[in-house]
Specification:
CATH superfamily of chain A: Glycoside hydrolase 144 (GH144)
CATH superfamily of chain B: Glycoside hydrolase 144 (GH144)
CATH architecture of chain B: Alpha/alpha barrel
Number of strands of chain A: 18
CATH topology of chain A: Glycosyltransferase
Radius of gyration of chain B: 23 Å
CATH architecture of chain A: Alpha/alpha barrel
Structural class of chain B: alpha+beta
Distance between the termini of chain A: 59 Å
Helix content of chain B: 25-40%
Structural class of chain A: alpha+beta
Strand order of the largest sheet of chain B: 3-4-5
Strand content of chain A: 5-15%
Largest interface: A-B, 58 and 47 residues
Oligomer: heterodimer
Strand content of chain B: 5-15%
Number of helices of chain A: 15
């Protein structure tokens, strides 16, 4: 008995040493390391292991979206089949799709390199808006910046979208040494003085139809924290955004569910509880904010949020027999963009348009939400979701956005983001948490050690404390 | 129950290490000494060899057995021909081709070599066309230009390697070299001379001392292997150094005389000297890769490696610089460690700065990788591993500024990559058979006075008048 426990403990210590060594092995970048997210408050394991043949096929079908929609002239894919509009969120998703498809093995080295080279070149040469930031929308076909209505012009910027872009740029530069300087140069073009303030609160800008641009404090529970990680990875202080200050909770179907208690404001930011806002931080960071001192080994607020989002939806299935995977998504019919939620504006399982008006009978099982939960929660419920969605791919490439809850018909929109998140989920199963390479000091750090770009607010350690907070007004001030 | 919990804890530690604590993760350690990479090729490296060999599968003219310097560009130099011979030998040694294919490829080249047209009947012209083996200019138009001593020096090295490794071909090799007229090639001091028609005026042939520190010493080894005195060319002096990131980069201290002797410090000359000669003196049969009988060249090579490594450590920019082709005008640039005294200058042949064309160069990266085993060269190898076109060969490199590919594919680049991989498996490429060849036996009794052969007999009386208009 004593002997066996000795053996057991020695095995454990060897495993520990092995884990330490493997984490320190900088060069084995091709063998992505397996990292586990922080432990769950619920007793459901994450999905880990080699992909099944059917899962590799799922990945190939998702990747086919990017073969189908790419514009060779710009190197940028369509934001959705039939739509040339892309956001920085989409570009971040495209980088995620490239990296994930390469890790899964459905994308060969050469195609990966050529695609990555092209998108990095575009990001390094694209026109920025008057704020020195990526515009909210670009035309993938021409590469030019466009307004809300698709006409050439400016439309402000989104800190949330830029945050996701920054996350994936960081992953690319850490993992692929051949692209790291050019990725750093992309970020060195941006002017950070307007997109966040000295405390790390995020700001967006929106253009009205008369062209007038208004800055506003951007971000609601979930994506606010997620986007702030992106800024943090590049050396900015994001601590006020990382805090979950405006969190209240409600009990739905017997489960505690956190939600953002701020009013919608103007421009409208609906604090809807959706799946993606909780799951992305799990897939990409294991629910841990990178580079944070005193890492807790127990649960984190991000983990609790995701667990709650999962449990409420699982409960709807187990208690009512209704498959649920809610996420904002593109629709194949009016109003085309739907905020499909677990909870918003006081109502559970409500679907809203972008201005916050309820849209009846539009709720859908979202493919990307289902796959995100499938990766992070290995359970019969997520199996059931994926089974239901298994036939919902387009033979010309890509997965459909989902299935309408009302009549089981297919939401035939095919979007960049959906297919990227499917690839992320599969890569998570195969290789673990997606942000897995150690952060290295490269061109970005070395250049900013010796050079200041005061107008752009770089380096952040020197200038971020000068960044102006947004003047508060009635509409953006958070409720106490 | 306890094991899963502990296991989870381990995974957590791994996760934390992975997402933070850079201190615990090995940084890039600067190399402390020169350690060559030696050993059989890994599957990945074997794939590199196959990719590089693709060039020679696609671009060799079936009739002449010759290959242009780039796909769809028929002219080639004697430097390129050397790389072609190097590629064939390497492919054979690495078992990419069998005995018969090796024999057929080499014999085609040698058949041409012993009957090739010579510039004024004296020496190989600067360019030949792979289409028909005739003398041409750089535009593939028939014509004579002059000769390059540097190119001939490299060719002599590879002819020597060929005949020492494959004595069966030594007679043909010797006959070819005996056709050359050595009377205007090296003077009594051992300075190498090239020649060109001034502004293509056939009545105006100018002779000039060719080569500056680096290339000069490398090319001189080829002539010395065939019995010439290369004292003046082989000596490093006069040279100076410029300190780049704390490393003393040597450069030639002579004034730039003309455009035939541009003073650029690049990786290739030192890399080739390392893998072909192990920075050993000609005739040195030493095969120990830790001992170099020309320690000055070994030290220079080290400084040139360290300066590039230091640039990465200080700026984060992957650096492996050498001269090479570009896929846009001016089609050829010198990516330097030091160009006319400026660190990291990228210059056209005329010395015009072209910083936007600076490249991470594939062959230079691999050359540094094989000669200097280090964390940094691990990264270099990783960075260039996707820089090829399937079925065609390796690209020249990746532009530093834009990250775009420099899609030129060259004979020399792919040949050099093959010899780099051969070096990894067998060490120093020049090995001696100990046999006396036709050349040695013939010149024991005979002389060819009109060709100033053998060099050891006639060179002491040669004076070459420089002519600089």
């Amino acid at each position: 008995m004593r002997l066996s426990s000795f053996i057991r403990s020695s095995i454990v210590s060897w495993l520990l040493i092995a884990a330490l060594l493997s984490a320190c092995h900088y060069h084995e970048q091709n063998q992505a390391m397996m990292f586990a997210p922080v432990s769950s408050t619920v007793d459901i394991p994450i999905r880990q292991g080699q992909l099944l043949e059917s899962e590799i096929q799922t990945a190939s079908r998702a990747w086919a979206y990017f073969d189908r929609t790419i514009f060779p002239e710009t190197g940028i894919p369509q934001g959705a089949v039939g739509s040339d509009t892309v956001t920085m969120w989409d570009i971040g998703s495209y980088l995620a799709a490239l990296v994930s498809a390469k890790r899964i093995g459905v994308l060969d080295e050469i195609t990966f390199d050529r695609r990555m080279t092209a998108v990095i070149y575009w990001l390094n040469t694209m026109e920025l808006n008057d704020y020195g930031l990526p515009n909210k929308f670009y035309n993938a076909r021409t590469g030019g910046l466009i307004q809300n209505d698709g006409q050439p012009g400016q439309a402000g910027f989104s800190a949330i979208d830029i945050g996701r872009l920054l996350i994936w740029l960081r992953i690319v530069r850490n993992e692929f040494i051949t692209h790291s300087t050019t990725v750093d140069k992309i970020v060195l073009r941006f002017n950070f003085r307007h997109v966040l303030d000295s405390d790390g609160l995020l700001h967006g800008a929106t253009a009205a139809s008369d062209g007038k641009v208004t800055l506003f404090r951007q971000g609601r529970l979930g994506l606010q924290q997620y986007a702030a990680i992106g800024f943090k990875l590049w050396g900015f202080n994001g601590h006020e955004s990382l805090k979950m200050n405006h969190r209240s909770a409600i009990t739905i179907l017997g489960h505690w569910l956190p939600f953002d208690n701020r009013p919608t404001g103007d421009p409208p930011q609906i604090g809807a509880v959706t799946t993606g806002m909780g799951m992305l931080a799990g897939l990409e960071f294991g629910f841990v904010v990178p580079h944070t001192e005193n890492q807790t080994t127990s649960s984190t607020p991000m983990r609790e949020l995701a667990d709650a989002i999962y449990l409420v939806q699982e409960a709807r299935y187990s208690q009512q027999g209704r498959l649920t995977a809610r996420d904002p998504h593109i629709m194949d019919r009016s109003p085309y963009y739907l905020i499909d939620s677990l909870y918003a504006q006081g109502v559970p399982f409500v679907s809203l348009d972008s201005r916050g008006n309820p849209v009846p009978d539009a709720a859908a099982i979202s493919t990307k939400a289902a796959y995100a939960m499938w990766a992070l929660y290995d359970s019969p419920y997520t199996d059931a979701l994926i089974n239901a969605l298994a036939p919902k791919y387009d033979e010309y490439g890509g997965w459909f956005a989902g299935i309408y809850e009302k009549d089981g018909s297919t939401n035939r929109a095919i979007t960049l983001d959906c297919n990227a998140i499917i690839l992320e989920a599969l890569a998570f199963k195969a290789t673990g948490v997606l942000y897995s390479q150690p952060d290295t000091h490269g061109y970005w750090e070395k250049l900013l050690e010796s050079k200041n770009f005061e107008q752009q607010g770089l380096p952040p350690s020197r200038y971020q404390r000068e960044f102006q907070p947004l003047l508060e007004n009635e509409k953006t001030r958070p409720t106490p | 129950m306890s094991i899963p919990r502990i296991f989870l804890a381990i995974l957590l530690i791994a996760a934390i290490l992975g997402t933070g604590s850079p201190a615990l993760c090995a940084p890039i350690r600067p190399a402390e000494k020169q350690i060559p990479r030696q050993g059989p090729l890994t599957a990945n490296e074997r794939q590199w060899a196959e990719i590089a060999w693709n060039y020679f599968q696609n671009n060799v003219n079936q009739e002449t057995g010759l290959s242009g310097a780039q796909p769809n560009y028929a002219p080639f130099t004697m430097w390129d021909l050397s790389a072609h011979i190097a590629a064939i030998i390497s492919a054979h040694q690495l078992n990419l081709i069998d005995e018969r294919e090796f024999d057929s490829r080499i014999r085609k080249i040698l058949r041409w070599f012993i009957s090739m047209e010579l510039f004024r009947g004296d020496l190989p012209n600067q360019f030949y066309s792979a289409d028909n083996g005739r003398m041409v200019d750089w535009a593939n138009e028939p014509g004579e230009l002059g000769w390059s001593a540097l190119d001939l020096g490299r060719l002599l090295t590879w002819l020597k390697i060929l005949k020492e490794r494959y004595p069966a071909y030594s007679e043909l090799v010797d006959k070819g070299v005996m056709r050359w007229n050595w009377s205007k090639l090296l003077d009594r001091d051992g300075t190498m001379f090239g020649a060109s028609y001034y502004q293509r005026d056939e009545n105006n042939l100018i002779h000039y001392a060719e080569g500056r520190l680096g290339y000069e010493e490398y090319a001189a080894r080829g002539f010395a292997l065939w019995g010439a005195n290369t004292d003046a060319a082989s000596v490093a002096e006069p040279y100076s150094t410029i300190t780049v990131y704390g490393f003393q980069v040597p450069f030639d201290a002579r004034d730039p005389e003309n455009l035939h002797a541009p003073n650029f410090v690049v990786s290739e000359s030192y890399v080739l000297d390392g893998i072909e000669h192990n920075w050993d003196l000609p005739g040195d049969t030493n095969t120990n890769l830790k001992i170099h009988s020309d320690p000055i060249q070994a030290r220079f090579a080290w400084q040139i490696y360290k300066a590039q490594e230091a640039r990465f450590l200080n700026t984060g920019i992957l650096t492996a610089r050498t001269e090479d082709a570009v896929d846009k005008p001016p089609y050829f640039v010198y990516g330097t460690i030091l160009g006319y005294g400026t660190p990291w200058a990228t210059l056209s042949h005329e010395g015009k700065p072209m910083p936007e064309l600076a490249c991470l160069n594939t062959k230079a990266a691999m050359g540094l990788w094989v000669l200097f085993k280090s964390d940094y060269t691990d990264l270099l190898a990783e960075a260039v591993t996707a820089l090829y076109e399937p079925g065609k060969g390796f690209y020249v490199g990746r532009f530093e500024e834009t990250g775009l590919l420099n899609k030129a594919i060259t004979l020399n680049g792919n040949g050099v990559i093959l010899e780099i991989l051969l070096y990894k498996t067998t060490g120093k490429l020049l090995v001696y058979s100990g046999l006396e060849s036709h050349w040695d036996k013939f010149f024991k009794k005979n002389t060819l006075p009109r060709k100033a052969l053998p060099p050891w007999k006639y060179q002491p009386s040669i004076t070459i008048h420089k002519f600089d208009p």
